[in-house]
Amino acid sequence: MMTKEEYIESLRKLDLKVYLMGKRIENPVDHPMIRPSLNSVAMSYELAQKDEYKDLMTATSNLTGKTVNRFCHLHQSPEDLVKKVKMQRLMGQKTAACFQRCVGMDAFNAIFSTTYEMDQALGTEYHKRFRDYMVFVQENDLVVDGAMTDPKGDRGLSPSQQPDPDMYMHVVEVREDGIVVRGAKAHQTGAVNSHEHLIMPTVAMKEADADYAISFAVPSDAPGVMMIYGRQSCDTRKMEEGADIDLGNNTFGGHEALVVFDNVFVPKERVFMCREYQFAGMMVERFAGYHRQSYGGCKVGVGDVLIGAAALAADYNGVPKASHIKDKIIEMMHLNETLYACGIACSAEGTKTASGNYIIDLLLANVCKQNVTRLPYEIARLAEDIAGGLMVTMPSEQDYRDPYLGPIVRKYLQGARGKDTENRMRVLRLIENITLGTAAVGYRTESMHGAGSPQAQRIMISRQGDLEGKKALAAAIAHIDPSKDKNA
Protein backbone atom coordinates (compact mmCIF):
# COMPACT_ATOMS: atom_id res chain seq x y z
CA MET A 1 0.00 0.00 0.00
CA MET A 2 1.11 3.56 -0.69
CA THR A 3 1.80 6.15 1.97
CA LYS A 4 0.19 9.57 1.84
CA GLU A 5 3.38 11.05 0.44
CA GLU A 6 3.72 8.35 -2.22
CA TYR A 7 0.14 8.94 -3.33
CA ILE A 8 0.74 12.67 -3.78
CA GLU A 9 3.92 12.03 -5.73
CA SER A 10 2.16 9.47 -7.93
CA LEU A 11 -0.27 12.19 -9.07
CA ARG A 12 2.62 14.47 -9.99
CA LYS A 13 3.76 11.87 -12.52
CA LEU A 14 0.47 12.00 -14.44
CA ASP A 15 0.03 14.23 -17.47
CA LEU A 16 -3.51 15.28 -16.60
CA LYS A 17 -5.44 17.61 -18.89
CA VAL A 18 -7.27 19.75 -16.32
CA TYR A 19 -9.02 23.04 -17.04
CA LEU A 20 -10.26 25.54 -14.45
CA MET A 21 -11.89 28.89 -15.20
CA GLY A 22 -10.85 28.78 -18.82
CA LYS A 23 -7.21 27.87 -18.28
CA ARG A 24 -5.17 24.65 -18.43
CA ILE A 25 -3.82 23.82 -14.96
CA GLU A 26 -0.28 22.55 -15.37
CA ASN A 27 0.13 21.53 -11.72
CA PRO A 28 -3.21 20.38 -10.26
CA VAL A 29 -1.50 18.86 -7.19
CA ASP A 30 -0.49 22.23 -5.75
CA HIS A 31 -3.29 24.42 -7.05
CA PRO A 32 -4.92 26.16 -4.05
CA MET A 33 -8.47 25.41 -5.19
CA ILE A 34 -7.72 21.72 -5.84
CA ARG A 35 -5.26 20.83 -3.07
CA PRO A 36 -7.82 20.59 -0.21
CA SER A 37 -9.66 17.85 -2.12
CA LEU A 38 -6.40 16.00 -2.67
CA ASN A 39 -5.72 16.22 1.07
CA SER A 40 -9.04 14.47 1.73
CA VAL A 41 -8.09 11.54 -0.52
CA ALA A 42 -4.62 11.44 1.03
CA MET A 43 -6.23 10.89 4.43
CA SER A 44 -7.39 7.46 3.22
CA TYR A 45 -3.72 6.54 2.74
CA GLU A 46 -2.59 8.12 6.00
CA LEU A 47 -5.16 6.35 8.18
CA ALA A 48 -4.43 2.98 6.54
CA GLN A 49 -0.87 3.23 7.88
CA LYS A 50 -1.99 3.77 11.49
CA ASP A 51 -2.36 0.68 13.69
CA GLU A 52 -5.48 1.96 15.45
CA TYR A 53 -7.39 2.22 12.15
CA LYS A 54 -6.10 -0.79 10.21
CA ASP A 55 -9.09 -2.97 11.04
CA LEU A 56 -11.38 -0.51 9.27
CA MET A 57 -9.02 0.92 6.66
CA THR A 58 -7.50 -2.32 5.34
CA ALA A 59 -8.66 -5.80 4.31
CA THR A 60 -7.26 -9.06 2.97
CA SER A 61 -7.67 -9.35 -0.80
CA ASN A 62 -9.59 -12.38 -2.01
CA LEU A 63 -7.58 -12.15 -5.24
CA THR A 64 -3.99 -12.00 -3.96
CA GLY A 65 -4.19 -12.78 -0.24
CA LYS A 66 -2.35 -9.53 0.47
CA THR A 67 -3.37 -6.65 2.71
CA VAL A 68 -5.01 -3.89 0.66
CA ASN A 69 -6.65 -0.57 1.34
CA ARG A 70 -10.34 -1.24 1.96
CA PHE A 71 -11.19 1.30 -0.73
CA CYS A 72 -9.74 -1.24 -3.22
CA HIS A 73 -11.47 -4.26 -1.67
CA LEU A 74 -14.15 -6.64 -2.95
CA HIS A 75 -16.54 -7.26 -0.07
CA GLN A 76 -16.35 -10.86 1.17
CA SER A 77 -18.97 -10.85 3.94
CA PRO A 78 -21.65 -8.77 5.66
CA GLU A 79 -18.92 -7.82 8.14
CA ASP A 80 -16.93 -6.31 5.26
CA LEU A 81 -19.99 -4.29 4.25
CA VAL A 82 -20.43 -3.02 7.81
CA LYS A 83 -16.74 -2.10 8.08
CA LYS A 84 -17.06 -0.17 4.85
CA VAL A 85 -19.74 2.07 6.38
CA LYS A 86 -17.73 2.49 9.59
CA MET A 87 -14.65 3.41 7.55
CA GLN A 88 -16.64 6.02 5.65
CA ARG A 89 -17.94 7.54 8.87
CA LEU A 90 -14.38 7.73 10.19
CA MET A 91 -13.20 9.43 7.00
CA GLY A 92 -16.00 11.97 7.22
CA GLN A 93 -15.09 12.71 10.83
CA LYS A 94 -11.44 13.29 9.90
CA THR A 95 -12.05 15.52 6.86
CA ALA A 96 -15.55 17.07 7.18
CA ALA A 97 -15.57 16.80 3.40
CA CYS A 98 -15.97 14.36 0.52
CA PHE A 99 -13.00 11.98 0.41
CA GLN A 100 -13.78 10.78 -3.11
CA ARG A 101 -12.72 7.10 -3.14
CA CYS A 102 -16.19 5.64 -2.52
CA VAL A 103 -17.34 5.76 -6.14
CA GLY A 104 -14.41 3.62 -7.25
CA MET A 105 -14.94 1.08 -4.48
CA ASP A 106 -18.65 0.82 -5.29
CA ALA A 107 -17.92 0.47 -9.01
CA PHE A 108 -15.43 -2.37 -8.33
CA ASN A 109 -18.02 -4.42 -6.51
CA ALA A 110 -20.84 -3.75 -8.98
CA ILE A 111 -18.76 -4.57 -12.06
CA PHE A 112 -17.18 -7.65 -10.46
CA SER A 113 -20.51 -9.42 -9.92
CA THR A 114 -22.16 -8.14 -13.11
CA THR A 115 -19.33 -9.29 -15.39
CA TYR A 116 -19.45 -12.74 -13.80
CA GLU A 117 -23.16 -13.14 -14.52
CA MET A 118 -22.74 -11.64 -17.98
CA ASP A 119 -20.08 -14.23 -18.81
CA GLN A 120 -22.25 -17.06 -17.47
CA ALA A 121 -25.18 -15.98 -19.63
CA LEU A 122 -23.43 -14.88 -22.82
CA GLY A 123 -20.12 -16.76 -22.87
CA THR A 124 -18.06 -13.56 -22.79
CA GLU A 125 -14.73 -13.18 -20.98
CA TYR A 126 -15.24 -9.86 -19.18
CA HIS A 127 -14.97 -11.22 -15.65
CA LYS A 128 -11.43 -12.54 -16.09
CA ARG A 129 -10.41 -9.18 -17.55
CA PHE A 130 -11.92 -7.37 -14.60
CA ARG A 131 -10.28 -9.70 -12.07
CA ASP A 132 -6.93 -8.90 -13.68
CA TYR A 133 -7.75 -5.20 -13.55
CA MET A 134 -8.63 -5.44 -9.86
CA VAL A 135 -5.28 -7.11 -9.11
CA PHE A 136 -3.59 -4.20 -10.90
CA VAL A 137 -5.57 -1.66 -8.85
CA GLN A 138 -4.87 -3.42 -5.55
CA GLU A 139 -1.19 -4.02 -6.23
CA ASN A 140 -0.70 -0.33 -7.00
CA ASP A 141 -3.18 1.01 -4.38
CA LEU A 142 -4.85 3.27 -6.93
CA VAL A 143 -7.57 5.89 -6.65
CA VAL A 144 -10.17 5.10 -9.30
CA ASP A 145 -12.90 7.47 -10.43
CA GLY A 146 -16.02 5.33 -10.73
CA ALA A 147 -17.90 7.13 -13.51
CA MET A 148 -21.57 6.49 -14.19
CA THR A 149 -23.45 9.75 -14.80
CA ASP A 150 -23.77 10.95 -18.41
CA PRO A 151 -24.86 14.49 -19.36
CA LYS A 152 -28.10 12.88 -20.71
CA GLY A 153 -29.19 15.80 -22.93
CA ASP A 154 -32.97 15.59 -23.38
CA ARG A 155 -34.07 13.53 -20.39
CA GLY A 156 -37.24 12.52 -22.22
CA LEU A 157 -35.28 10.64 -24.87
CA SER A 158 -33.33 7.38 -24.70
CA PRO A 159 -29.59 7.39 -25.50
CA SER A 160 -30.11 6.31 -29.11
CA GLN A 161 -32.80 8.98 -29.66
CA GLN A 162 -30.63 11.95 -28.66
CA PRO A 163 -30.05 14.55 -31.43
CA ASP A 164 -26.41 14.62 -30.28
CA PRO A 165 -25.18 11.03 -29.73
CA ASP A 166 -22.43 12.24 -27.39
CA MET A 167 -24.94 13.00 -24.63
CA TYR A 168 -24.30 9.41 -23.52
CA MET A 169 -20.92 7.67 -23.62
CA HIS A 170 -20.87 5.34 -26.62
CA VAL A 171 -18.76 3.10 -28.81
CA VAL A 172 -17.76 4.70 -32.10
CA GLU A 173 -15.51 1.90 -33.34
CA VAL A 174 -14.83 -1.72 -32.43
CA ARG A 175 -11.38 -3.02 -33.34
CA GLU A 176 -9.73 -6.37 -32.87
CA ASP A 177 -7.46 -4.89 -30.21
CA GLY A 178 -10.03 -2.68 -28.43
CA ILE A 179 -12.69 -0.02 -28.85
CA VAL A 180 -12.88 3.74 -29.45
CA VAL A 181 -15.34 5.70 -27.30
CA ARG A 182 -16.72 9.23 -27.21
CA GLY A 183 -18.84 11.19 -24.76
CA ALA A 184 -18.52 12.58 -21.25
CA LYS A 185 -19.18 11.79 -17.62
CA ALA A 186 -20.60 14.60 -15.47
CA HIS A 187 -20.32 15.42 -11.75
CA GLN A 188 -17.27 13.18 -11.40
CA THR A 189 -16.23 13.23 -7.76
CA GLY A 190 -12.47 13.29 -7.26
CA ALA A 191 -11.70 12.85 -10.96
CA VAL A 192 -8.62 15.09 -10.87
CA ASN A 193 -7.24 13.19 -7.86
CA SER A 194 -7.67 9.77 -9.52
CA HIS A 195 -5.20 7.52 -11.31
CA GLU A 196 -7.90 5.84 -13.40
CA HIS A 197 -11.41 6.37 -14.77
CA LEU A 198 -13.69 3.30 -14.54
CA ILE A 199 -16.74 3.79 -16.75
CA MET A 200 -20.21 2.28 -16.40
CA PRO A 201 -23.49 2.81 -18.29
CA THR A 202 -25.84 5.26 -16.62
CA VAL A 203 -29.29 3.71 -17.30
CA ALA A 204 -30.91 0.40 -18.18
CA MET A 205 -30.96 0.03 -21.95
CA LYS A 206 -32.79 -1.64 -24.81
CA GLU A 207 -31.33 -3.17 -27.96
CA ALA A 208 -31.52 0.15 -29.82
CA ASP A 209 -29.17 1.60 -27.19
CA ALA A 210 -26.55 -1.16 -27.47
CA ASP A 211 -23.74 1.21 -28.48
CA TYR A 212 -24.19 2.98 -25.14
CA ALA A 213 -23.96 -0.18 -23.03
CA ILE A 214 -20.25 0.01 -22.25
CA SER A 215 -17.91 -0.39 -19.30
CA PHE A 216 -14.16 0.11 -19.43
CA ALA A 217 -11.14 1.59 -17.65
CA VAL A 218 -8.49 4.03 -18.86
CA PRO A 219 -5.71 5.97 -17.11
CA SER A 220 -6.72 9.50 -16.13
CA ASP A 221 -4.12 10.92 -18.50
CA ALA A 222 -5.03 8.73 -21.48
CA PRO A 223 -4.94 10.51 -24.87
CA GLY A 224 -8.28 12.17 -25.56
CA VAL A 225 -9.31 12.50 -21.89
CA MET A 226 -9.75 15.98 -20.44
CA MET A 227 -11.30 17.29 -17.22
CA ILE A 228 -13.10 20.58 -16.67
CA TYR A 229 -13.10 21.40 -12.96
CA GLY A 230 -16.48 22.24 -11.42
CA ARG A 231 -17.27 25.44 -9.50
CA GLN A 232 -18.25 25.36 -5.83
CA SER A 233 -19.81 27.93 -3.55
CA CYS A 234 -17.15 30.20 -1.99
CA ASP A 235 -14.38 28.36 -3.87
CA THR A 236 -12.35 31.47 -4.74
CA ARG A 237 -11.77 32.14 -1.05
CA LYS A 238 -9.04 29.51 -1.38
CA MET A 239 -7.26 31.81 -3.82
CA GLU A 240 -7.03 34.70 -1.35
CA GLU A 241 -3.55 35.26 0.00
CA GLY A 242 -3.21 34.02 3.58
CA ALA A 243 -6.81 32.73 3.69
CA ASP A 244 -7.46 30.71 6.82
CA ILE A 245 -10.42 31.64 9.05
CA ASP A 246 -12.71 32.52 6.14
CA LEU A 247 -12.25 29.07 4.60
CA GLY A 248 -13.96 27.33 7.51
CA ASN A 249 -12.01 24.18 6.65
CA ASN A 250 -8.59 25.24 5.40
CA THR A 251 -7.20 21.72 4.96
CA PHE A 252 -9.81 19.44 3.39
CA GLY A 253 -12.41 19.61 0.64
CA GLY A 254 -13.94 17.79 -2.31
CA HIS A 255 -14.38 18.40 -6.01
CA GLU A 256 -16.28 17.33 -9.10
CA ALA A 257 -15.37 17.58 -12.77
CA LEU A 258 -16.81 17.12 -16.23
CA VAL A 259 -14.67 14.38 -17.79
CA VAL A 260 -14.65 14.43 -21.59
CA PHE A 261 -13.65 11.46 -23.78
CA ASP A 262 -12.80 12.54 -27.32
CA ASN A 263 -12.33 9.40 -29.41
CA VAL A 264 -10.43 7.58 -26.66
CA PHE A 265 -8.93 4.19 -27.50
CA VAL A 266 -9.51 1.48 -24.89
CA PRO A 267 -7.40 -1.72 -25.13
CA LYS A 268 -9.40 -4.95 -25.30
CA GLU A 269 -8.20 -6.19 -21.91
CA ARG A 270 -9.69 -3.08 -20.28
CA VAL A 271 -13.17 -3.46 -21.82
CA PHE A 272 -15.72 -4.96 -19.40
CA MET A 273 -18.94 -4.49 -21.37
CA CYS A 274 -19.43 -3.70 -25.04
CA ARG A 275 -23.02 -3.64 -26.36
CA GLU A 276 -24.35 -6.25 -23.88
CA TYR A 277 -27.35 -3.98 -23.25
CA GLN A 278 -29.20 -6.73 -21.35
CA PHE A 279 -26.82 -6.26 -18.40
CA ALA A 280 -26.62 -2.47 -18.32
CA GLY A 281 -29.52 -2.27 -15.88
CA MET A 282 -27.95 -4.81 -13.52
CA MET A 283 -24.68 -2.88 -13.37
CA VAL A 284 -26.50 0.41 -12.76
CA GLU A 285 -28.75 -1.04 -10.06
CA ARG A 286 -25.89 -2.69 -8.19
CA PHE A 287 -23.62 0.33 -8.30
CA ALA A 288 -26.47 2.58 -7.18
CA GLY A 289 -27.23 0.22 -4.30
CA TYR A 290 -23.64 0.19 -3.08
CA HIS A 291 -23.36 3.95 -3.39
CA ARG A 292 -26.65 4.54 -1.57
CA GLN A 293 -25.25 2.40 1.24
CA SER A 294 -22.12 4.59 1.24
CA TYR A 295 -24.11 7.67 2.18
CA GLY A 296 -25.06 6.00 5.44
CA GLY A 297 -21.39 6.39 6.41
CA CYS A 298 -19.81 9.43 4.78
CA LYS A 299 -22.70 11.87 5.39
CA VAL A 300 -22.88 10.68 9.00
CA GLY A 301 -19.19 11.38 9.59
CA VAL A 302 -19.54 14.92 8.26
CA GLY A 303 -22.73 15.20 10.30
CA ASP A 304 -20.74 14.35 13.43
CA VAL A 305 -18.47 17.34 12.73
CA LEU A 306 -21.42 19.64 12.01
CA ILE A 307 -23.16 18.64 15.23
CA GLY A 308 -19.96 19.29 17.16
CA ALA A 309 -19.58 22.67 15.47
CA ALA A 310 -23.15 23.63 16.34
CA ALA A 311 -22.55 22.68 19.98
CA LEU A 312 -19.35 24.75 20.01
CA ALA A 313 -21.23 27.69 18.49
CA ALA A 314 -23.74 27.44 21.32
CA ASP A 315 -20.85 27.56 23.80
CA TYR A 316 -19.36 30.66 22.15
CA ASN A 317 -22.79 32.30 21.93
CA GLY A 318 -23.28 31.68 25.65
CA VAL A 319 -26.39 29.49 25.34
CA PRO A 320 -25.27 25.84 25.79
CA LYS A 321 -27.73 25.29 28.64
CA ALA A 322 -30.80 26.74 26.93
CA SER A 323 -33.42 24.01 26.70
CA HIS A 324 -34.29 24.68 23.06
CA ILE A 325 -30.60 24.51 22.10
CA LYS A 326 -30.19 21.19 23.88
CA ASP A 327 -33.29 19.87 22.17
CA LYS A 328 -32.06 20.90 18.71
CA ILE A 329 -28.69 19.22 19.24
CA ILE A 330 -30.42 16.04 20.43
CA GLU A 331 -32.57 16.12 17.29
CA MET A 332 -29.47 16.53 15.12
CA MET A 333 -27.88 13.49 16.76
CA HIS A 334 -31.09 11.49 16.39
CA LEU A 335 -31.30 12.25 12.66
CA ASN A 336 -27.61 11.52 12.12
CA GLU A 337 -27.75 8.16 13.88
CA THR A 338 -30.88 7.28 11.90
CA LEU A 339 -28.83 7.62 8.71
CA TYR A 340 -26.07 5.48 10.20
CA ALA A 341 -28.59 2.83 11.30
CA CYS A 342 -29.82 2.53 7.71
CA GLY A 343 -26.27 2.17 6.40
CA ILE A 344 -25.48 -0.55 8.94
CA ALA A 345 -28.81 -2.33 8.40
CA CYS A 346 -28.46 -2.70 4.62
CA SER A 347 -24.89 -3.93 5.20
CA ALA A 348 -25.77 -6.48 7.89
CA GLU A 349 -28.46 -7.90 5.60
CA GLY A 350 -26.00 -8.28 2.72
CA THR A 351 -25.92 -11.47 0.67
CA LYS A 352 -23.43 -13.33 -1.50
CA THR A 353 -23.56 -12.84 -5.26
CA ALA A 354 -22.89 -15.59 -7.80
CA SER A 355 -19.37 -14.17 -8.28
CA GLY A 356 -18.55 -14.51 -4.57
CA ASN A 357 -18.50 -10.90 -3.43
CA TYR A 358 -21.28 -9.54 -1.22
CA ILE A 359 -24.01 -7.05 -2.05
CA ILE A 360 -26.09 -5.02 0.36
CA ASP A 361 -29.82 -5.42 0.83
CA LEU A 362 -30.98 -3.23 -2.05
CA LEU A 363 -34.30 -2.24 -0.51
CA LEU A 364 -32.68 -1.04 2.71
CA ALA A 365 -29.92 0.72 0.74
CA ASN A 366 -32.57 2.68 -1.13
CA VAL A 367 -34.32 3.51 2.14
CA CYS A 368 -30.94 4.72 3.44
CA LYS A 369 -30.43 7.06 0.50
CA GLN A 370 -34.05 8.29 0.59
CA ASN A 371 -33.42 9.41 4.17
CA VAL A 372 -30.15 11.02 3.09
CA THR A 373 -32.08 13.18 0.60
CA ARG A 374 -33.88 14.75 3.58
CA LEU A 375 -32.21 14.46 6.97
CA PRO A 376 -28.89 16.25 6.27
CA TYR A 377 -30.94 19.27 5.19
CA GLU A 378 -32.68 19.32 8.55
CA ILE A 379 -29.39 18.81 10.40
CA ALA A 380 -27.96 21.75 8.43
CA ARG A 381 -31.03 23.89 9.17
CA LEU A 382 -30.72 23.24 12.90
CA ALA A 383 -26.99 24.02 12.80
CA GLU A 384 -27.70 27.34 11.08
CA ASP A 385 -30.42 28.06 13.65
CA ILE A 386 -28.03 27.49 16.55
CA ALA A 387 -25.16 29.39 14.91
CA GLY A 388 -27.13 32.60 14.40
CA GLY A 389 -27.08 35.17 11.62
CA LEU A 390 -23.49 36.20 12.28
CA MET A 391 -22.42 33.10 10.38
CA VAL A 392 -23.32 34.81 7.10
CA THR A 393 -22.82 38.50 7.95
CA MET A 394 -19.46 38.36 9.74
CA PRO A 395 -16.69 40.71 8.55
CA SER A 396 -13.84 39.16 6.63
CA GLU A 397 -10.64 37.69 7.95
CA GLN A 398 -8.80 40.65 6.38
CA ASP A 399 -10.84 43.01 8.56
CA TYR A 400 -10.04 40.92 11.62
CA ARG A 401 -6.30 41.01 10.80
CA ASP A 402 -6.24 44.73 9.97
CA PRO A 403 -4.36 46.88 12.58
CA TYR A 404 -7.14 49.48 12.66
CA LEU A 405 -10.27 47.37 12.12
CA GLY A 406 -9.11 44.31 14.06
CA PRO A 407 -9.68 45.67 17.57
CA ILE A 408 -13.12 46.90 16.53
CA VAL A 409 -14.07 43.51 15.07
CA ARG A 410 -12.80 41.68 18.17
CA LYS A 411 -14.77 44.04 20.43
CA TYR A 412 -18.11 43.68 18.65
CA LEU A 413 -17.88 40.00 17.72
CA GLN A 414 -17.12 38.80 21.23
CA GLY A 415 -19.56 36.27 22.63
CA ALA A 416 -19.68 34.42 25.95
CA ARG A 417 -17.41 35.63 28.73
CA GLY A 418 -14.03 33.90 28.67
CA LYS A 419 -14.39 32.78 25.04
CA ASP A 420 -11.95 33.88 22.33
CA THR A 421 -13.42 35.94 19.47
CA GLU A 422 -11.25 34.31 16.81
CA ASN A 423 -12.33 30.84 17.92
CA ARG A 424 -15.95 31.96 17.66
CA MET A 425 -15.34 33.17 14.12
CA ARG A 426 -13.63 29.91 13.19
CA VAL A 427 -16.48 27.67 14.28
CA LEU A 428 -19.06 29.87 12.56
CA ARG A 429 -17.06 29.70 9.34
CA LEU A 430 -16.86 25.91 9.67
CA ILE A 431 -20.66 25.71 9.89
CA GLU A 432 -20.91 28.02 6.89
CA ASN A 433 -18.46 25.81 4.98
CA ILE A 434 -20.46 22.63 5.58
CA THR A 435 -23.94 24.08 5.08
CA LEU A 436 -23.39 26.78 2.44
CA GLY A 437 -19.74 26.73 1.29
CA THR A 438 -17.50 24.32 -0.58
CA ALA A 439 -18.33 21.31 1.61
CA ALA A 440 -22.06 21.88 1.05
CA VAL A 441 -21.58 20.39 -2.42
CA GLY A 442 -20.90 17.03 -0.79
CA TYR A 443 -23.05 17.35 2.32
CA ARG A 444 -26.22 19.00 1.01
CA THR A 445 -26.61 18.84 -2.76
CA GLU A 446 -24.88 15.48 -3.18
CA SER A 447 -27.18 14.13 -0.48
CA MET A 448 -30.05 15.03 -2.79
CA HIS A 449 -28.71 14.02 -6.22
CA GLY A 450 -25.72 11.74 -5.62
CA ALA A 451 -26.28 8.03 -6.33
CA GLY A 452 -29.53 8.97 -8.05
CA SER A 453 -32.01 11.74 -7.32
CA PRO A 454 -34.86 11.04 -4.84
CA GLN A 455 -37.33 9.65 -7.37
CA ALA A 456 -34.85 6.93 -8.34
CA GLN A 457 -34.94 5.53 -4.82
CA ARG A 458 -38.74 5.72 -4.66
CA ILE A 459 -38.98 3.70 -7.86
CA MET A 460 -36.66 1.04 -6.41
CA ILE A 461 -38.52 0.97 -3.09
CA SER A 462 -41.75 0.44 -5.03
CA ARG A 463 -40.18 -2.46 -6.97
CA GLN A 464 -38.50 -4.12 -4.02
CA GLY A 465 -40.99 -3.42 -1.23
CA ASP A 466 -43.09 -6.56 -1.96
CA LEU A 467 -46.45 -4.82 -1.70
CA GLU A 468 -48.30 -7.93 -2.87
CA GLY A 469 -46.66 -9.93 -0.09
CA LYS A 470 -47.76 -7.33 2.48
CA LYS A 471 -51.32 -7.46 1.13
CA ALA A 472 -51.24 -11.23 1.51
CA LEU A 473 -50.16 -10.90 5.15
CA ALA A 474 -53.08 -8.60 5.88
CA ALA A 475 -55.51 -10.81 3.98
CA ALA A 476 -54.44 -13.88 5.97
CA ILE A 477 -54.91 -12.20 9.35
CA ALA A 478 -58.26 -10.69 8.30
CA HIS A 479 -59.40 -14.10 6.94
CA ILE A 480 -60.11 -12.62 3.50
CA ASP A 481 -61.22 -15.14 0.87
CA PRO A 482 -59.94 -13.96 -2.55
CA SER A 483 -62.41 -16.24 -4.34
CA LYS A 484 -65.27 -14.11 -3.06
CA ASP A 485 -63.80 -11.09 -4.82
CA LYS A 486 -63.70 -13.01 -8.10
CA ASN A 487 -67.35 -13.94 -7.78
CA ALA A 488 -68.59 -10.57 -6.57
From TrEMBL:
The UniProt record lists the HpaB/PvcC/4-BUDH N-terminal domain at 3-273
Q: What class of enzyme is it?
A: lyase
Q: Which GO terms describe its molecular function?
A: 4-hydroxybutanoyl-CoA dehydratase activity; isomerase activity; oxidoreductase activity, acting on the CH-CH group of donors
Annotated TM spans: none
UniProt domain HpaB/PvcC/4-BUDH C-terminal: residue ranges: 280-478
- Tree of life domain: Bacteria
Q: What EC number(s) does its UniProt record assign?
A: 4.2.1.120
Q: Which UniProt keywords apply?
A: FAD, Flavoprotein, Isomerase, Lyase, Oxidoreductase
Q: Where does FAD bind?
A: 189
**Record protein name field:** 4-hydroxybutyryl-CoA dehydratase
The species is Porphyromonas macacae
